[in-house]
């Protein structure tokens, strides 16, 4: 992917066909590979319309060398402002996930029997209103590997009860 900022512009959430809001990865027939020219050169900006990327059950994706920013999903226990992974397989390599916000997992939310590998990434300045500012793993069923990565300056700023894990929250 060439050096540029890609800004999502179709407002709307809670649909799973990439028609509005986030980029949905739903295909279970193969592996999607999305590689940028560098995290400092390629940005996908969700423009606070929805999360940035939603990876659905059974999908497999390799995402590398780009920045994911300005994802926003709040209300009713929403998860994954930057990336939401539900029983899928994903490898993140050289990805910066920054300035995203959600109820749980401001940067990344992992649910179900997901397999997630994170290499050389940075999760920074994300906010999980209730938990997991940087990374949130629900129910601990996932296999998550984090290597040579930074999780810093993330926050869990508060709801009325149970605020956990500004950096990482594993349940």
Descriptive notes:
By secondary structure, the chain is mainly β. The chain has no helices and 20 strands. Strands 1-4-7-11-15-19 form a six-stranded parallel β-sheet, with no helix packed on it. A six-stranded parallel β-sheet has the order 2-5-9-13-17-20, with no helix packed on it. The radius of gyration is 14 Å and the shape is globular. The termini are far apart. The mean pLDDT is 92.
How are the SSEs ordered, and which strands pair?
Elements lengths: L3 E4 L15 E3 L5 E5 L6 E4 L7 E3 L4 E5 L2 E3 L2 E2 L9 E4 L2 E5 L2 E3 L2 E4 L3 E4 L3 E5 L2 E3 L2 E5 L3 E3 L5 E5 L2 E3 L15 E3 L1
Parallel strand pairs: 1-4, 2-5, 3-6, 4-7, 5-9, 6-10, 7-11, 8-12, 9-13, 10-14, 11-15, 12-16, 13-17, 14-18, 15-19, 17-20
Mean residue pLDDT: 92
> Could you give the order of strands across the largest sheet?
1-4-7-11-15-19
Ends: how far apart?
35 Å
Percent of residues in β-strands: 35-45%
Q: What is the molecular shape?
A: globular
> How is the biggest beta sheet arranged?
6 strands, parallel
| Structural class by SSE content | mainly beta
Can you count the helices?
0
Q: Helical proportion?
A: under 10%
List unreliable stretches of 5+ residues.
Answer: none
Radius of gyration, in angstroms, nearest whole number: 14 Å
How many beta-strand segments? 20
Order of helices and strands: EEEEEEEEEEEEEEEEEEEE
